[in-house]
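Hi C.,

You asked whether I'd gotten around to modeling the 341-residue construct. I have! Everything is below, sequence then structure, no commentary in between.
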Amino acid sequence: MAASDAAPQATGLREIARLAGVSHQTVSRVLNGHPNIRPATRDKVLAVVKEQNYRPSRVARALATRRHERIGVVVDGASQMGPASTLRAIEAAAYARDYTISTLTASRQGTPIRDAVSHLVDHGVDGLIAIAPRTETIRQLLGDPGDLPVVVINADAPADRCTVSVDQSAGSRLAMDHLLAQGHRVIMHIAGPRDWAEARAREAAWREALVSAGLPVRPALVGDWTADRGYELAAQVAATQGCTAAFAANDQMALGLIHGLHDAGVRVPEDVSVVGFDDLDESRHYLPPLTTVRQDFEALGTASVEALLELIAHPGEVPEPRRIQAVLVERSSTAGPSASR
């Protein structure tokens, strides 16, 4: 093959040094942010780097800095909307900071948490983010990640762990305050699975709001996050004497609940108001459009990555817990109580 036909050679560190008229050690110091470089020299090297469109090899940087620029993410409950949305947000936040991520899904039926963590550590990551909605997940995760920085997305993690989470209690209080302000006095709750910390926090906030208002507390109806279960529980909501509102712990169960109430001849919101939690993209298209609590997953992913990078930069220091505030989104699935109920 003729020389002119050969593929162009990638510009390397030594070629950058030759073009800039400095040593390759100087180029390396400039690229790694070394402070003891004269401004004129730094500017000259960076100008050549830009001109040559040079991107340092991740492998070379890992050898020089002992960092991989890779974040490990362990996901529990990846099939559910919350963990899946959080993972996408982490991917975007990591990419924006020039980090790659390696992800493993762990579950009780599949890969155990400890095995997932060990696998990620063995393949070279600078730190871990654990999307850990279940209490058992946290217990297994904290077995022994060694000295690796770890951020746990769950407010129930021990105080010596760096945690990031949406404020579930505050978000649930927004939903309850909305219903109470409309005049509802018998408010049922479709709870999530009891082994999920988020579900327990939402149920506790529902109960506390009723107790604080001096109102009766009926037993929570336990769901499994699915619309099918919300549909099944609609009959119990419809049969509850005086019930004029229901707070579902997620939007899927709220969707099933609305469908089930309709089939039972109960109108939403004329007879029973319904509030969900999450604000799925589809929630605005429910019939009626769903009043719900929006979780800011983009902010959650960004805060998680930022917290982990802080831990990597400052080993041994545990940042303050980060809480992302939820927002109530009012639509037409809620109204004042009807006299007929």
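If it helps when you're writing up: The first helix runs from residue 13 to 20.

Thanks,
B.
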